[in-house]
Amino acid sequence: MRSVINSAKNSYSTLRWVSQPMKQAHVLKTLRICGFSTGFTIATIRRLNCSAKLSKRVEHIRSKDDDEGSMSFRELWRLIKPFFGWFLAAVVCAILSAVINIRIPLCLGDLVNIIVDVIKSDNKQLSDHFDHLKPHAIQLLSMYIIQSALTFAYISFLTILGERMAMKMRSELFNKLLYLDMAFFDSHKTGELSARLNSDVQEFKSSFKMCVSQGLRTIAQTLGCIGSLFYLSPTMTLYTIAVVPGIILVGSLIGSGLRVLSRRAQAQSATASAVSDEALTNMRTIRAFAMEKLESRLFDEELDKARSMQEQLGLGIGLFQGATNLFLNGIVLSVLYGGTNLIAQGEMSPGALMSFLVSAQTIQRSLSQLSIIFGSAIKGWTAGGRVLQFSRITPVIDYESGVCIPYHSLWGDVKFEDVTFSYPTRPGHVVFDNLNLTIPAGQVVALCGPSGEGKSTITHLLERFYEPKSGRVTLDGKDLKNLNVEWLRGQVIGLISQEPVLFATSVEENIRYGRPDATNEEVRAAAKAAHVDEFVSRFPAGYSTIVGERGAQLSGGQKQRIAIARAILKNPPILVLDEATSALDSQSEKLVQEALNNVMKGRTVLVIAHRLSTIRSAQLIYVIKDKKAVESGTHEQLMAKKGSIYRKLVEAHNVE
Ligand SMILES: Nc1ncnc2c1ncn2[C@@H]1O[C@H](COP(=O)(O)OP(=O)(O)OP(=O)(O)O)[C@@H](O)[C@H]1O
User: How far apart are the CA of 458 and the centre of ligand 1, in A?
Assistant: First the structure.
């Protein structure tokens, strides 16, 4: 920036020197232009600089694996298979409708020939003419009726098929996402995932329906009409269809380019929606830092890229369709020209020309329709691939396997044995290197240590959100890897974390999340024990009060107490409290601590806390530092120990 200002200053001095012999007005004008350009340059550089910094933030949102998002025919078949009946019915109706469409021009031609005969005939008796026309007119009318019935049928069948397939895709993807490893969510943003669940499925569904209904119909129609053309005039037909292979060849070449463009455009749209999603979920932070303008620009930039890619795609598809139309219209014109010649030479009847023209027009319409379908197929194919991309991932942690320890023989003895661990998203950063610690059954064990040393990570490993790189975590001597993870998380461990996140439903339903089959009385009892009752009873809607998105309509302490009530209701043998009382004021903390003390009795409890009052009451304290548990003992033992890190932490108010 400084260099830009300096160069502006330099150019100003040069200008002054050059302008000495010039008139003053000219000098002022030149200076004004120079000043304006400098200002413009500075503003542009500032803007570019800012945009570059902003784009960096988006880099982590942008999905890295877009090229894997393509769909195989096998995967498509797997989607169709459960609804094959509907698919078959739709296909049959679409083809039958196409067959009728092929027959209609021929009938129309017969009718025209009769009309021409009538015009030429000397018989002025109207009823005779109508008798002659009637069977053909009735035949044509029945075809129109059957055709519309078939259209209704195949559109209905396709709607049913499309909706069921979309539901299957959505449900499979959502189910898959629910069971994917935590590492996956560390590297994928919510906005991106919801774009796949919603807009990509929608895109696939519309495109699939279009391809089956119109694609099949138009292909059948084109082939059938080519047959009719042959029947009417083989010579003219050969001229007419000579261009079709060329169109197909050019089409497939353009198609492969458009597919790549479509994939990139869809990925960019997903990035844009991830940016907006992130902004909308962090609205309070945006407000607090007055970042509305920056967020708006960031979104606009991503949106603009998506727009530009979608426009390029649209232009490509449009170009292809335009060129196809030009070819096809040329065909119709040449049919008229050639047909008139043949009529003049007496080789073709006017009715046959009419049939030929209508058939050629049907082919023309079908082919131009096909070029639209082609564009939509490209979009649908890539959208389907993007949806299925995550369904192909196999999670490291398997929910099905593993044993459960029977309730009566479960003690709750936890051990970390030589555990080495790095987060999958940051493999180079070792959080633990041969960590060893024991959480004896029925005891309250506290973890303390400087921030970022891995206390919460211990709870993540205990919950089996991640797997250790080496070493093992055991429960009653059994490696967690051999235990059923659903049982472990659902029935053994109750976690109350630093930042409890609630669902946007009522207080009651949020508490019941701990045990969905709990009675109202049990929910109220848990709420009373966690001192939720005190503040909820002051709300006009009581336990039916809606807590807002992620519990935004409650205070931090209130959220925390609901989370505690949820854990109390769950009643797990092992309780993990990760700064569970950190958001409470000292008065509320005292109340909640009392409640927690009641729940903690007879259970294995792992507490992460910064408050001395919480830590000192633990039967065993571990100090986590330098990738290990460096000290352990009771508060008194650790305070008495010479050179104790624990004592330093207490004295430095790291433990208050
Ligand atoms: N999901 C994650 N992916 C990658 N690294 C992570 C992840 N979560 C935590 N970390 C890193 O692991 C290290 C340990 O983090 P952890 O949250 O366990 O620390 P902590 O001791 O609980 O800190 P605090 O007391 O501040 O809560 C930190 O360096 C942190 O940056």
Answer: 10
353 in Cβ contact with 107 (< 8 Å): no
Distances (CA, A) of 89 to 102, 202, 402, 565: 20, 22, 44, 54
The pair phi, psi for residue 471, each rounded to 5°, is: 80, -175
- Contact present, 273 and 194 (Cβ < 8 Å): yes
Angle at 133 between CA 130 and CA 136, to 5 degrees: 145
**CA torsion through residues 130, 133, 134, 138, sign:** negative
Over the stretch 557-605, which tens digit does the pLDDT of each residue have?
788 888 888 888 888 889 898 887 766 677 767 766 776 776 777 788 8
Q: Is the CB of 578 under 6 A from ligand 1?
A: no
- Ligand 1 in contact with 455 (CB < 6 A)? yes
Minimal-distance CA residue to ligand 1 atom 24: 451
CB 268 within 8 A of CB 58: no
Per DSSP, the three-state class of 180 is coil
What separation in Å is there between the alpha carbon of 406 and the centre of ligand 1? 33
Q: Check if the beta carbon of residue 195 is closer than 8 Å to that of residue 69.
A: no
CA of 169 to the centre of ligand 1 (A): 35
DSSP-derived letter for residue 601 is T
Residue pointed to by tokens 């949020």:
510
pLDDT in tens, 189-224: 777 788 888 888 988 998 888 888 778 777 877 787
CA dihedral over 290, 293, 297, 299, signed as positive or negative: positive
CB-CB contact of 463 with 487 (8 Å): no
Q: Report how far ligand 1's centroid is from the alpha carbon of 431 (Å).
A: 8
Tell me: the pLDDT tens digits for 465-513? 999 999 999 999 999 999 999 899 988 998 887 777 788 888 988 999 8
Q: Which of 456, 463, 608 to mutate to test the pocket of ligand 1 (most atoms within 8 A of CB)?
A: 456
The complex's ipTM works out to: 0.97
452 C-beta closer than 6 A to ligand 1: yes
